[in-house]
Amino acid sequence: MAFIIWDDLYATGIESIDNQHKHLISLLNRMFEALLQKKGKDELKYVIDEMTKYAGYHFTTEETLMKKADFSGLIQHHRYHEDFAEKVKDFSEKYDLQDEALTAEVTIFLTNWINEHLSMIDQQYVPAMKKAGIS
User: Fold this and answer.
1) pLDDT digit string (tens) for 81-129?
2) What NCBIfam families does the annotation carry (predicted)?
């Protein structure tokens, strides 16, 4: 059962970015399903590791395209990405400490990131990228 289904609300129209965003949504759905089955802790390490990888490749992709499009909000957007990476690092440390509330915390964080960052913050660079012919 999917918790969040891909919607045009999240779409940037840039295929590489949209595909990466879909992967993030799949991670949230995986956590949600695991929570429903009371197996959240079993999936937690995988999701945190994937979020770490995601922060590396996705943010590089986005920021490279923002530079190419001469997006004026790049510096602020980079700060959002740093905050995400720092939060994932914190999750990894809490996992090592066997924090009992971490499964719910990761799920809530991903839900908020998808609903706020993908649907609002990322939409800010779309006009610049379209103008630059990036799709």
Assistant:
1) 999 999 999 999 999 888 778 988 999 999 999 999 999 999 999 999 9
2) bact_hemeryth, hemeryth_dom
Residue 21, domain CATH: 1.20.120.50
The pTM of the full predicted model, rounded to 2 decimals, is 0.91
Three-class HEC string of 64-111: HHHHHCCCCCHHHHHHHHHHHHHHHHHHHHHHHCCCCCHHHHHHHHHH
Q: What value does the CA radius of gyration of the chain take, rounded to a whole number of Å?
A: 15
**Gap between the Cα atoms of 106 and 18, Å rounded:** 21
Query: Is 41 inside any structural domain?
Result: yes
2: in domain: no
Assigned domain for 107 exists:
yes
